[in-house]
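Summary for the steering committee. The consortium agreed at its last meeting that each partner would contribute one worked example illustrating the joint modelling workflow. Our contribution is presented below. We chose a case with several input lines so that the handling of multiple components could be demonstrated. No manual editing was applied between input and output; the record is shown as generated.
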Amino acid sequence: MNTTSSISSLKAVASPPLFISTFRPTVKSLRNPKFPSRFSPKRIRCMQDSNINLNFGSKSNPNPSSSHEFSVSFATVSSLEAEEALLTTTTTTSSADKLRLLVTEFRSLTEPIDRVKRLLNYATVLAPLDDSARVPANRVTGCTTQVWLEIKKDELGRMRFKADSDSEISKGFCSCLIWILDGAKPEEVMGVRSEDLSEMNVGVHGKAQSRVNTWHNVLMSMQKRTLPFFDGDDDDVAHREEDRRLVQHRQEHDLLFNYVNGRRRSYMESSDYSVSLLPLDYDFTI
Amino acid sequence: MEGVAMKLPSFKSLAPNAISFAVGHRSFTRVRRSFSLSVCSVASSSATIAADSEPVSLGRRARKDFRILHQEVNGSKLVYLDSAATSQKPAAVLDALQNYYEFYNSNVHRGIHYLSAKATDEFELARKKVARFINASDSREIVFTRNATEAINLVAYSWGLSNLKPGDEVILTVAEHHSCIVPWQIVSQKTGAVLKFVTLNEDEVPDMDMLREMLSQKTKLVAVHHVSNVLASSLPIEDIVVWAHDVGAKVLVDACQSVPHMVVDVQKLNADFLVASSHKMCGPTGIGFLYGKSDLLHEMPPFLGGGEMISDVFLDHSTYAEPPSRFEAGTPAIGEAIALGAACDYLSGIGMPKIHEYEVELSKYLYEKLSSLPDVRIYGPRPSESVCRAALCSFNVEGLHPTDLATFLDQQHGVAIRSGHHCAQPLHRYLGVNASARASLYFYNTKEEVDSFIVALADTVSFFNSFK
Ligand SMILES: Cc1ncc(COP(=O)(O)O)c(C=O)c1O
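What follows is the complete predicted structure of the assembly.
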């Protein structure tokens, strides 16, 4: 596995500035309840969570003694440094890289509770959404929670996302997705596959296309609303993108894009709900 | 109700708090198991059992029939509290389904060969079983549908489109399931009929005074739930039918949450239509039924066209078969209908009064325990001498999203509850919330599971609060 090396090389980017500048390691936030084993009569005890490792895309290790160096070094990166690092490297770090990092991070959390904790921690660093953006048009439908998503394209032609939810776990999902896709080019946004997120699932088992899957729904909404900004020419992405897997799936992507583009008008006219009817919903791989 | 509570074993003295005695119990279980039930080995690890003098609860006894309940999910013993969404299926039902496909799978009402005749007999026997289960006088009053939703749509499209005119009124409550709102919206758009909604009174149950006041000569139909899947309240259907018939209106009862849990007697209720879904009453998915009074069904045009529902087809017209075939176009869910029949047998074998009695007890216990937790708001009426709630609680915990609760309960504690609007968005809007969590029980649940749920919920709440 070469994930470790790729992570180390990207470690500076792996931590969004927001987190470092806003996270307050208060006693309270570190005192996560440790869970009584199944039906044990023990009262909830509060224990320090050795797992807290608030670095997006960093590989955490439940065993602190063997924790990866980068997670330590992160904590010492100043917000300014991190911000600079982020600014200088976002141009070279693709969403696909970030996604891979995050998947690796979540995959390393074998205990479901650790994934939940991680999400909740990420929820706390999600940039606030203006009240004015909490309008029905920004609602992500299909989730069992309320999620609002604001999408803009900046002057550099990059997609900017902001989100909020009434659910902390959903906020965590949004926080991760925004970390992956905020500042990405439209074609990068369109290139993320829902299945890629399934590794990070918290709370939804099995396939990624469950109608209650927030990862999926938020991503679909991001993609649907990025589509008008997307000219459909993703050739340069494929050339720049070294990821073999992505190339492998290019054909599939093209199929999806053709489908989406072929129906662009009716697709865009229809309500958000129709997103769930897109074939993007389904995993055709055998 | 009082007497019921006396007869049933009280766990209160034994289980004031599941936390304090779980360990001791486990060892006790082993002794007891040797002579009580032939529970499969997985089950035994979970069992906590009443004192020797106490009879074993219905829940405890029934569990042996549900293998699915004896498993671990996410490393915890499964506590399934989502039966209002769908119930689990006992071995007898699964066997009936397997048996059909293994030994006599064949199309019904068509072939003259042995298997087809056998399948037809069993299919029609299942119809009789359903009829008996709800005390219909004739099995021809039972129309098999895919589920309750399809049954309501059948009435809406067939009866509604041919009987409703502009200005006619259909009375519903704000607490209806979407499946008993949307078909009427569609039909009202097509016919110009007006939908009127009864709201809740101060006890948080649909206001029956308001319903009475709404009734007029314009009212053509009252379509209401029997037991609410969110509020756990039940409506006085017998009275509603009398009031509605007084103004010449028909009554459709959505009995999805009552038929599985209590004796439902369509003759006693005297309702015109009644619908339910098999999957909520221990039967398979893909099958449900409509009960309709014979004379009404006879007057109704078909809902779907195709095979099975006609008597003669000419190129320009067809003559329709008699009900119920008229409404069963195409090959039905044969094995599923037969297995629904087996579910009726299974439930009747235990006895619906007994199931109801036990669930009343469970319901009280659940409400009592859940309302003892801080910052918990339970929707629907408070239980009392006169108010008997169904064995479910929809609730919210102050400051926490129900989906977060449900996610954590599942992942960390193996407790399955539902979160969302439970297909009752208008009701949630009326209650001023977007979503709620819901724990719903069936006769295979136990007080110990309620205890586990409460401990798990308290734990979940403190987990999330620690992040605030
Ligand atoms: C009260 C009520 N009505 C109708 C339905 C719809 O049942 P089905 O989805 O099986 O058609 C349900 C199921 O959730 C229900 O609880």
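Residues 1-53, 59-91, 204-211, 233-286 of chain A have pLDDT under 50 and may be disordered. The radius of gyration of chain A is 19 Å.
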